[in-house]
Amino acid sequence: MLRKITSIILSFMIIFSISITGFANSNTKIQLSTERNISKGSLDKDADNNTAKNGGKVIIVDISRTNLENFNNIKFIRTKLKSSGYVALMNIRGDKGYDDKRNFATMGASTRANISSDLVLDFNDTVEGAKLYKSATGWKPGTINLVNINNVDFVNLTTGDYKSKIGYLGETMNANGKKISVIGNNDYYENGQMVKNRDFCLTFMDSKGRLFGGNTDDINKKDTNYPFGIATDYEKLKKETQKYYNESDLLYVNTGDTYRLDKYKMNLNEKTYKKMKFSIYNKISDYLDYVFSIAGKNDTVYVMSSYPSNLEYINNKKLTPIMRFDMSDGGFGLLNSATTRRDGIISNVDFGAEILNRFGLKNEEMIGKKLTSLEKNGNIDYLLKDFEKIVSISSIRMSVINIYVSLVSIVIIAAVISLWQKNRIPRRFRDRVIYILKEASKLGLIMPLAFLSAPMLQSSSKPMISLSIVFFSITYYLVPKMIFKKDDMKQIGMYSLIMISVICLDAFFATPLMESNIMSYDPMVAARYYGIGNEYEGVVIGSAILGFSVILEYKKFPKWIIGILLMGVLFISAYPSMGANVGGAISGMIAFLVYILLINNVKIDIKKCVMILLATVLLVAGFAVADIALNIGSHLGNFVNQIMVNGPMEIANVFLRKIEMNILLAQTTIWVNFLLVALLLLSIAVFRPGKFSGAIKNRYPYVYKGFLSIIVGCLVTLLVNDSGIISAATDSLYLIVPIVIIMVIEYKEKTESSME
After folding, report:
1. How many other C-beta atoms can be found within 10 angstroms of the C-beta atom of residue 31?
2. How high is the pLDDT of residue 725?
3. For 704-708, which contacts have Cβ atoms below 8 Å and span 24 or more sequence positions?
4. DSSP letters spanning 295-353
């Protein structure tokens, strides 16, 4: 039975992977942005803001390389936030990593963009530059032109995972008659040579690399009291701001000095650094006062930091502040986004969609979502505390996970070797050693539960988060042991049932525990912001199947109720507004249906496999329809929208990205070590029908059928999830730990019978 199911699933995986890869390779054609037709966007009838309704303007002031606490040291911002302003922290990750260029490009692109860190961007506002641009692209130049736009776009399209289309914010604005202007620069000196840095133009240029208004060259002055002897001329900046405000619909201003201060910091001592910093902050405060004085009543003003300082980045603080001031709205609180579904946290992909929404525009090819406001007192204090927790979790998560996976792997290997070579262990220590290893192996099931429960204590610092995990680990170990005494199978059944219950309750209430869980997603990594993470996708399958299997072993429980409960688990864990895990919907549906058929003694053949696959397709399609119809905006809905916009190739690109991610994870994540341990033990214990697997089948028939279903879940999740190795490893926890415990039970009974 197991071999038949495994061979069917593996065959499907191989054929599907080859066909998808072949399809993608046969249709891959690089078409640069200067060669292709670009979507012009459309009017957004749902744009509900005063700027869009009354033809207002947008002003963006970028105080780069600063943080939320720095903002509080700028007098104007500190005072302004007492009466108005909505605030958020923005994820800055681009495609394949973090740096200013990737972030700027992503903010104006269709999705995350990949701009090589070593690639020099030649934004040029000279006549000679315009000629070079036209000869390279064939397009009429603007005021400011990215002369090497073709090279920049080629790198993005060939090395990027997302094949992002750059310049969509500027393109959509231009196509709908809205003019953009930029002012300022981040110029500095390096090895005695002037480095012209206008990378922020990546956000606001059109798809051809052009900007049609602004001043990026003649805005600085010499001043030895400022970094590199360069200072922004704020009097001139005010005049240019008034000029381009009158001429433009969108005005972006880069203050420049804070960027240069961060680059120059290594040349300063603490005293001179603080003196220079607060001198710059005073200038910026005065300038912001001027900006707000000229802004119209229908305008929107954003104050942001597009990238953190070097020190912040090193300390893993990779979220930057952004503030929105609606000049007609005196409210204050937090900014939210459907991309993250987390109060006060947004993504850089939302920036372009948000700006377009201010003008009553949208572009379906941009995956970002407009920002919504949430009234909240103490918004800054809330964000600072939340950010502390995010940083603490992010800083220790890999260390804790590595310790956990390593410990469980070592314990399981040691337990198997001890049972295999038991006669080599001195008799007086043998039982104690095996008992200790059996109890320690239960950590494999206890720790994921402790990780998920720890956020209930609302700890923010690294020590307190660690203590919370220890507290719940001890609690979850002792309580089932006290209830079920020496019955290990009932204990692991209880772990599993508590696990799936907590996951479902958490998902039902929009995953507040999952989002602060050390074994789940990280807002700074930006792989996922909400729903059930990939680590717990495998836990959902394994814990549900194992928990119900143990119930069936000990209780006469109606199997049809088990089927209903499993479908309930599947719905909650995968529905777009709750668990929102597409990979979980697919792998869970297949694993659960296989389990339901097995416990009802239904023979699984090719016909049944086809029916299971069809049922899975219908489930995912149903979720997709609900997502789009209800405007939930989850990953599934975004994926379907991208297919509608970009065609079937989007499917191939997504699956290729999943395969590439799994290959990368196979080389980097510690979870692959546990998966190897699981496969080794599985090959020893299960694929020997005449020995151990036969004993499991006879003694625990429902658990045995659960094992088969869990294996199917592992195989499917490897295919359909971009972190399939991790999901398969966490799923296999509920296979390997029970096998070890059953081995010990068998050993104990044989030992006791021999003594009689």
Report:
1. 10
2. 78
3. 705/549, 705/595, 705/598, 705/599, 706/545, 706/546, 706/548, 706/549, 706/595, 707/735, 707/738, 707/739, 708/1, 708/2, 708/5, 708/594, 708/598
4. --TT-EEEEE-SS--HHHHHTT--EEEEEEEETT---EEEEEETTT-BTTEEETHHHHH
* C-alpha distance across the termini of the chain, in Å: 37
pLDDT tens for 727-738 read 888 888 898 899
> Tokens at residue 503, please?
């996951």
Helix (H) or strand (E) segment spanning residue 217: none
Place of tokens 């980045």: 313
Mean pLDDT score, 495-500: 95
State what percent of residues in the chain have pLDDT above 90.
55
User: In sequence order, what are the residues at sequence separation of 6 or more whose Cβ sits closer than 8 angstroms to the Cβ of residue 171?
Assistant: 38, 39, 40, 41, 206, 207, 208
**Could you give the C-alpha distances from 396 to 385, 517, 519, 554, in angstroms and in order?**
17, 11, 10, 40
468 and 400 Cβ atoms separated by less than 8 Å: no
Report how far residue 451's alpha carbon sits from residue 533's, in angstroms, rounded to the nearest whole number.
13
* Sign of the dihedral through C-alpha 135, 138, 141, 144: negative
Q: What is the DSSP string of 570-592?
A: HHHHHSTTTT--HHHHHHHHHHH
What distance in Å separates the CA atoms of residue 98 and residue 92, rounded to the nearest whole number? 7
Contact yes or no for 114/348 (Cβ under 8 A): no
* pLDDT tens digits for range 390-414: 999 988 988 898 899 889 888 888 8
Which residue has tokens 């850089």?
348
**pLDDT classification of 153: cutoffs 50, 70, 90:** very high
Tens digits of per-residue pLDDT, 98-145?
999 999 999 999 999 999 888 999 999 999 999 999 999 999 999 999
Tokens representing 45 are 């009838």
* Residue showing tokens 């007609």: 328
304 close to 62: Cβ distance less than 8 angstroms? yes
Tracing tokens 């049922």 back to the chain, one arrives at: 615
653 DSSP assignment:
H
**What is the rounded CA–CA span in Å between residue 744 and residue 756?**
19
Are the CB atoms for 308 and 98 separated by under 8 Å?
Answer: no
| Spatial separation of the C-alpha atoms in residues 101 and 121, rounded to whole Å | 9
**Of the candidates 216, 206, 59, 202, which has an alpha carbon nearest to the alpha carbon of residue 142?**
206
**What is the rounded distance in angstroms from the CA atom of residue 430 to the CA atom of residue 434?**
6
> Could you read off the pLDDT of 634-654 as tens digits, one per residue?
655 565 566 555 655 555 565
What does the alpha-carbon distance between residue 183 and residue 171 come to, in Å, rounded to a whole number? Answer: 19
What DSSP state is assigned to residue 520?
A: S
Counting residues of the chain whose pLDDT is more than 70, the rounded percentage is: 86
Distance CA 383, CA 381 (A): 5
Q: Please give the residue that has the higher pLDDT: either 54 or 721.
A: 54
Which letter, b or e, does each residue of 717-726 get, where b requires 16 or more Cβ atoms within 10 Å of its Cβ?
bbbbbbbbbb
Distance (Å, rounded) from C-alpha 390 to C-alpha 641?
A: 31
- Residue 482: closest CA among 474, 447, 434: 474
CB of 368 closer than 8 Å to CB of 347: yes
| Phi (first) and psi of residue 304, to 5 degrees | -145, 165
Residue 430 to residue 433: CA distance in whole angstroms: 5
d(CA 478, CA 483): 9
Q: Supply the pLDDT for residue 529.
A: 84
Map tokens 């996951």 to a residue: 503
For residues 316 and 304, give the distance between their C-alpha atoms in angstroms, rounded to a whole number.
Answer: 19
**Is the pLDDT assigned to residue 666 strictly greater than 60?**
no
Q: How far apart are CA 484 and CA 550, in angstroms?
A: 13
On whether the pTM is more than 0.70, the answer is: yes
Find out whether 732 and 541 touch, Cβ atoms under 8 Å: no
Q: Which of these, 573, 551, 535, lies nearest to 733 by C-alpha position?
A: 535
